[in-house]
Amino acid sequence: MASLRSADLLAALVCADIVTVLAFTGLSNTVVMAVLAIPFVLVVPGYLVMTAAFAGRRFDIPELLLYSMGMSFVVVILGGLMLNLTPFGLEARSWSLFLGGFTLCVSAVAYVRRSPQGPSGPIPLRQLLAAVSPRTWLMFGLAVAVAAASITLAYYSAAQQENTQGYTVLWIAPAKDAGQQENFYLGVNNMQPTTVSYSLDVSVNGKIVERWQSIALKPHESWQATLFLPSSSYVGKARIDAALYRSAAPSVVFRHVVLWLSP
Amino acid sequence: MAFREMYALDTFDDSPLTLGWLPLLSFADAAGLFVLALADIGGRASAVWADPLFWIGLLIAFVPTAVRILSGAASRNECIILLLLLGSVLYLQKVLQYPLGFAYNDEFQSLRTALDITNSGHLFHPNPTLAVGPAYPGLEIVANAASSLSGLPLFPTVVVILGVVRLIQILALFLVYEKVSRSTRLAAIATLLFTAEPGFTIGSGQFAYSSFGIPLALFVLYTVVSLTLRTVPREHRKGLLLIAILGLGALTATHHLTSFFLAAFLLLWFVLTLRDQAPDSHIWLNRAILGVLSVLSLILPVVWLVVVGRDIVLGYLVHPAVETAGQLIQVLLGRSSGRLLFQSTGDLQVVPVWEQLVGLASAAVALIAQMFGLYLIWQRHRANVCMLALAVSSLLYPLSLVVRYTPVGASIASRATEYAFFPLALVLALSATAAMDWLRRSNAVRVLPPVRTLSRAAPACLLTYPVTMATVASVLFLGGIVVGAGQTFWHTPGPYIAAANMRSISQEGIDAALWTSVHVGPNQRLAGDLVDRLLMASYGGQWVVPDPTGPGDANVDSIFFSPHLGPAQEATLRRMRIRLLVVDLRFSNGLPASGFYFDGAEPGAYQHTVPINPRYLTKFDGLNGVSRLFDSGNIVIYDTGVLDGKS
Question: Which of B176, B448, B508, B636 is the most exposed place for a label (fewest CB within 10 A)?
């Protein structure tokens, strides 16, 4: 009976254990973590505070929900301010330790304060749900399905709009690392909805030094090249021009970038 | 089950769950959401039917819920679930508009703070887009905890968090109203009317610290209200007191203005308790609790303000308030003309006349109902000190309407309305219930001449008092959205518009920002238009100038607005150590929707009649020493490092 009476506390502890173990093993990008961590952060801390602070009091569902969610935010915010003072700061493992430790301590207090004669659980869910008929469940199911369809529709519509607004990027950048100052990088990103064939000319101080006749890129495909220009090959400043053409219109400069180099 | 007046509200409500019309109305909410999704699809294709569908979708969700709640036939549980569903639909309409990523200007300010916390593991990093933001990291802390533990990216995590915040807001509103008014019926109607708050549908679902401040303050207020009930057992007072104190602490670290508003309200409530000449022990206890909490609620934000950066916070809060007050005085003295409401700038459609009328009608209805409600509170509820404090606080609403007429007061007015609507909704609900009682008693709806004419054609059920009141509530609701949006481009997503907040966000701009982070490195000093500055500061991690929340810098603007890059502009580049310039060539094709391309200090701000000259934008091409690093067709990034003497 004791374990049933504290099934909610046990569930919170199991949740805390799983989240902490997964956070420390570096497995935070799992479905289990995604499903457990959100309620572990947004609901569990507040719920535990309520059960510990008001052992013996039965809340109605709206009040319990409000306190659980509201107090969870309070605990997490104050916890974040405390973690900021530690050298570890705010990251998955420190959060799992903080919230796991908090869960353990507050669950223990709640367990001790809960009287055996007190309310067996915070929500008489079975009693409340008894009123829900199969026909009602069907209506709710239909509503959820329509809402889910709306969200899916919106997502795909937005994604489609993004895909149809195509563009092409041409970029040039000097090497950032020390010892590689004579290198520079060129890139083309094809964000057009179709495969496009490009050509690219690179010139130094007006003289073409490199030419790529055909760079065929599928949608969302990128191309990159590294060029080497020794500082001994020019006097004063060097102006590097890169001009991108579409194969469909080879005489019109489609994109153009410039990089000035100093010896 | 009819409404029950609840006088012992801290007792457990274990009445069986009666669903009433809930299954049907939940389907209506879902259908409303579906229509809103269709409106968004239409908006993306620039269809003319998109905007009407937006309003229809909102009404499908709102009207049935309003009729049911106003009918007085719904149970307490049914009311709460209906309100939660309606609140969720109004939140989700924002998610449906931009389901792929952050879109609103304010969201990129919070995104920068959140990314700084994720990257460094620590708080309080300077934020070039909102200097005051890192000092109030409450929402970003929660986002960091949920995102880092769940392994989910920040955007979906924030969508879930803000959904939970919306639930907190609805529950807290209902429960506070219920405990203060001791009436479930009033609480349900007041919460319903709160959805007419101009920012509730359009702005409050944003990833911004202000979105979280009010719900958290309402949660704290609910705890304080619970503490002051006579029926609270002594052993629970300590727990509630602890929750209230911790809540005040969390609120202090979340939002500056909301902390001060809560402090002001608690102080007002405390002062009003002092008028009782013959207090009993309970009133003495309440006075002590309120006194302690109101003083604490004031001390905490003041201490925090001093600790985290007095100059930054005070400058951010005081400067716009002083400017607005000055302009208001000028307008009142007739020395300057007020701002024209619903005026559109740029190439955008003028706000339709019907929308303007609904917006004005909603304000008129709210003002009239407020006066009546205040009278009722004085007549019937003046012994209820908390309700009296709410009545006094609701006077902020007419003030916020006046401030809207000042040229710079629109943003302050929208903030003030957020705070004013919480007390106002209860005052309006009181008027609504009194009006409905009168209509019910006198059968007045049916004897009104226009209604008599209508009744020959309309079914009888459409002429009942809940439908009449739901119509009035719908005017308030729609008017709130008209006022909150200001311009029609807020209603649905759509093609790019120059300088139009979320309608100027494109993947092209985000990719440009990400490119700077990878290939140029973060924290480069960068100038550009408002939207690109926000993208560059958040996704690109750059240090943008000037601060997008500030008044702007005419010298920096002249870099873009002058026909040539002259000595003055070069001096500005050197003085401000600006390495990167972002130029959006689309500006030469359209007027800025917000009135300016770069900031309010630019030449012709709010008065542009022609788009910016394209030669001004391309003048950097071919300049000796100025590299053109990135070209995506619309967006070009220049490196002025040679001017700065760096590269």
Answer: B448
Measuring CA to CA, which residue among A145, A129, A75, A140 is closest to residue A103?
A: A75
| CA gyration radius, chain B | 26
B622: closest chain A residue by CA: A258
Average pLDDT over residues B210-237: 89
Q: Are A244 and A255 in contact (CB under 8 A)?
A: yes
B95–A34: do the CB atoms touch at under 8 Å?
A: no
Q: pLDDT tens across B317-364, in order?
A: 777 777 777 777 877 777 776 666 666 555 555 788 899 999 999 999
Q: Give pLDDT, residue B6.
A: 35
Provide the residue count of chain B: 647
Decide if B194 contacts B218 (C-beta within 8 A): no
- Which of A90, A128, A147 lies closest to B144 in CB terms? A90
Kindly state the average pLDDT of the residues A30-55: 89
- Could you read off the pLDDT of B569-618 as tens digits, one per residue? 999 999 999 999 999 999 999 999 888 899 888 888 888 889 999 999 99
Minimum Cα–Cα distance from A72: chain B residue: B142
For chain A, the helix, strand and coil percentages under 3-state DSSP, each to the nearest 5: 50, 25, 25
* Contact criterion met (CB < 8 Å) for A132 and B247: no
Task: Report chain B's terminal Cα–Cα distance, integer Å.
Answer: 77
CB within 8 Å of chain A, chain B residues 217-276: 219, 222, 233, 236, 238-239, 242-243, 246-247, 249-250, 253-254
**Mean pLDDT across chain A, nearest whole number?**
87
Among A150, A221, A259, most B C-beta atoms within 10 A, so best to mutate, is A150
Say if the Cβ atoms of A146 and B506 lie within 8 Å.
no
User: Given an 8 Å threshold on Cβ–Cβ distance, is B30 in contact with A140?
Assistant: no
Chain A nearest-CA distance from B519, in A, is 6
Section A221-246 average pLDDT: 86
What percentage of chain B's residues is helix, strand, coil (to nearest 5)?
65, 5, 30
B450: CB partners within 8 A, 6+ apart = none
Q: What sign does the CA torsion over B178, B184, B190, B193 have?
A: positive
- CB proximity A157 to B under 8 Å: yes
